[in-house]
């Protein structure tokens, strides 16, 4: 019998929910399971609701599901918000001290949600309390496991002779994880090992948490022995990693020789920069030693300016930002474009406009990235679909930037950044470095930085190179870089730069532009992080003998029109799946292929898509029961 369960932990922000989820994920990965975890949190600093859903399976998985198998909660809000996600036959481990809590006792429950919840409870003639919600869950077939978390701390304090433990409610997260693993009959050794790893720099705290874990695990195994789901362990795939989403791009930058990154803190891009700050020195097999200098600047305008300045020295340089920060960078992107400076901008999208939903997911910035900055100049917009892909894509993006001497905007998003997954270990031996026409020596003292060439790309000097003197300006120029407004020279310079769009589409390998997972009568087009939920949804449909095609676009600008047309010529019905309101890919698709999309599956709540949602919508389309726009809503 195969294993596929979803575990959810929730609590107030700052209460250790993420630490608890990391322990649970590490334990499951250590025991050989595939993991896909997703974190959701409010944009305030502390107090609002935060939760982490971790899917665990003995097969490769790429997304979350709607249904929760086991939920653990040490606060009332998690129960109120998520009780109806727990599946029939699933389990709720909860703090029994909360049973009399009313919805009015939880100040962080917003009025709109409370009104919806009250209607649900009124319809079932239940009180607006935790006990009312629990009764509803039990009637839905959910197994309830009440535990007094404070009693566990009190008994642990007595056993260890440490009375201070009674007040350490911060340990509720470890207690919840350990109760869950006891319920699921997971062998405990990996639990203790994971706690040691997470608290490796704080041995005393690690020891206290291990004591709490051991006590809670034993309590659950003794008291909760009637649950039908278990995680006994499975054969571990070799060469696998448990990683958080931003590490793909971060490690990719280290490996491919990025030696300078500037940034201004912004969610969710900051996570990548913090990791790079903590791991600035890297050697891989002795042949790529170096330090990536990470500079936190006063704003995003300064960040992109410093990156461009660094790139002019010949150093591979990047910046990392999210939508509002990218807005501030728009003018400087144009400066890099007219001066043919190779730069890479990693754009972690989130929901806008303005500050929008600052800690939530979205694919809102595609058209903005393609049209960023005024005027016309070549750039590349490229999107990764998962964490493993982002490692290799990052390295490719630097090569594209160097070879074609253009800004490259590497599209990532909050869904990718906040996910914790098991994936194949990144392989640096598959990474090649191509610096393009970067000169190491110039013998001719008549160097022309913007010389007209057959392929439209000029040999590139770097600052300080002997005989490689050049001029940069934001104005149009001649071959040396001196300002020129001559109309014929303007035509030549514009044609020279813009010819690269055709060259890019021709030179980048087809398999790096578009990935086809098969084309059928019904075929999906999509881009970015929707890839994982789509793949899992298609697997679910395949079990019902329903085949739907999927074409993933990675090179979004310049758009791979000819290749896309050849791939999709036999598809009768096109379905566009995106996390935005206006189906931005479909607009580019129609513009370039003169073909309409037939159905849209869209989500713009700020929450990532689940494979369950996509499966349900695709099934409706196949059965001719769907609206033209299917809008997804799952997620608290």
What can you see in these coordinates?
The structure is a single chain. This protein folds into 4 domains: 4-223, 3-Layer(aba) Sandwich (Pyruvate-ferredoxin Oxidoreductase, domain 3), CATH 3.40.920; 242-430, Rossmann fold (3-Layer(aba) Sandwich); 437-508, no CATH class; 511-631, 3-Layer(aba) Sandwich (Rossmann fold). The protein is globular, with a radius of gyration of 27 Å. Helix 1 packs across helix 7 and helix 7 packs antiparallel against helix 8. With 636 residues, it is α/β, with parallel strands linked by helices. The relative contact order is 0.09. Helix content is 38%, strand content 19%. It contains 21 helices and 23 strands.
CATH arch. level architecture of the largest domain: 3-Layer(aba) Sandwich
The CATH topology of the largest domain is what? Pyruvate-ferredoxin Oxidoreductase, domain 3
CATH homologous superfamily identity of the largest domain: Pyruvate-ferredoxin oxidoreductase, PFOR, domain III
Q: In total, how many beta strands?
A: 23
Kindly provide the name of the CATH class of the largest domain: Alpha Beta
> In which order are the strands of the major sheet placed?
6-5-4-1-3-2-16-7
Distance between the termini: 31 Å
Overall tally of structural domains: 4
Number of helices: 21
Percent range for β-strand residues = 15-25%
**Fraction in helix:** 25-40%
| Shape, per Cα inertia axes | globular
């Amino acid at each position: 019998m195969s294993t596929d369960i979803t575990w959810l932990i929730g609590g107030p922000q700052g209460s250790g929910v993420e630490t608890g989820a990391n322990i649970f994920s590490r334990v499951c990965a250590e025991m050989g399971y595939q993991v896909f975890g997703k974190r959701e949190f409010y944009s305030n600093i502390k107090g609002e609701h935060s939760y982490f859903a971790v899917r665990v399976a003995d097969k490769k998985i790429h997304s979350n599901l709607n249904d929760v198998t086991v939920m653990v909660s040490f606060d009332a809000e998690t129960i109120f918000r998520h009780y109806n996600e727990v599946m029939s036959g699933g389990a709720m481990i909860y703090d029994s001290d909360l049973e009399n809590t009313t919805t009015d006792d939880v100040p962080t429950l917003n009025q709109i949600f409370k009104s919806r919840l009250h209607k649900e409870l009124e319809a079932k003639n239940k009180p607006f309390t935790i006990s009312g919600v629990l009764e509803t869950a039990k009637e839905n077939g959910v197994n309830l496991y009440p535990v007094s978390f404070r009693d566990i701390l009190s008994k642990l304090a007595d056993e260890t002779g440490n009375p201070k433990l009674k007040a350490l409610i911060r340990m509720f997260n470890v207690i919840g994880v350990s109760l869950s693993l006891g319920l699921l009959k997971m062998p405990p050794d990996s639990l203790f090992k994971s706690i040691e790893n997470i608290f490796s720099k704080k041995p005393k705290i690690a020891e206290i948490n291990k004591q709490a874990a051991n006590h809670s695990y034993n309590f659950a195994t003794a008291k909760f022995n009637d649950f039908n789901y278990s995680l006994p362990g499975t054969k571990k795939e070799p060469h696998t990693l448990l990683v958080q989403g931003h590490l793909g791009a971060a490690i990719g930058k280290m490996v491919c020789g990025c030696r300078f990154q500037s940034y201004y803190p912004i969610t969710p891009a900051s996570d990548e920069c913090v990791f790079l700050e903590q791991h600035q020195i890297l050697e891989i097999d002795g042949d790529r030693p170096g330090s990536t200098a990470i500079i936190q600047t006063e704003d995003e305008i300064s960040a992109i300016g410093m990156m461009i300045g660094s790139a002019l020295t010949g150093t591979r340089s990047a910046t990392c930002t999210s939508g509002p920060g990218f807005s501030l960078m728009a003018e400087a992107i144009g400066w890099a474009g007219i001066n043919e400076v190779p730069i890479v901008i990693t754009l972690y999208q989130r929901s806008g406009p303005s500050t929008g939903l600052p800690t939530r997911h979205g694919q809102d910035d595609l058209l903005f990235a393609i049209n960023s900055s005024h005027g016309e100049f070549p750039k590349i917009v490229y999107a990764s679909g998962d964490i493993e892909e982002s490692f290799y894509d990052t390295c490719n993006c630097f090569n594209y930037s160097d070879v074609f001497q253009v800004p490259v905007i590497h599209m990532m998003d909050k869904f990718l950044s906040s996910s914790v997954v098991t994936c194949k270990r990144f392989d640096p031996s598959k990474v090649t470095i191509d610096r393009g026409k970067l000169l190491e020596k110039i013998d001719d003292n008549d160097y022309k930085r913007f010389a007209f060439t057959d392929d439209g790309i000029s040999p590139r000097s770097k600052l300080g190179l002997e005989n490689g003197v050049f001029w940069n300006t934001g104005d149009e120029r001649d071959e040396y870089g001196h300002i020129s407004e001559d109309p014929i020279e303007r035509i030549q310079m514009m044609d020279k730069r813009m010819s690269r769009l055709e060259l890019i589409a021709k030179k980048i390998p087809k398999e790096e532009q578009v990935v086809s997972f098969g084309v059928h009568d019904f075929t999906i087009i999509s881009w970015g992080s929707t890839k994982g939920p789509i793949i899992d949804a298609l697997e679910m449909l395949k079990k019902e003998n329903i085949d739907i095609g999927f074409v993933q676009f990675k090179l979004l600008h310049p758009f791979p029109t000819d290749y896309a047309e050849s791939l999709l010529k036999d598809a009768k019905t096109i379905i566009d799946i995106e996390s935005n309101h206006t189906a931005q890919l479909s607009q580019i698709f129609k513009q370039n292929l003169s073909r309409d999309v037939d159905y849209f599956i869209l989500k713009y709540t700020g929450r990532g898509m689940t494979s369950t949602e996509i499966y349900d919508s695709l099934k409706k389309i196949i059965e001719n029961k769907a609206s033209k726009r299917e809008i997804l809503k799952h997620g608290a």
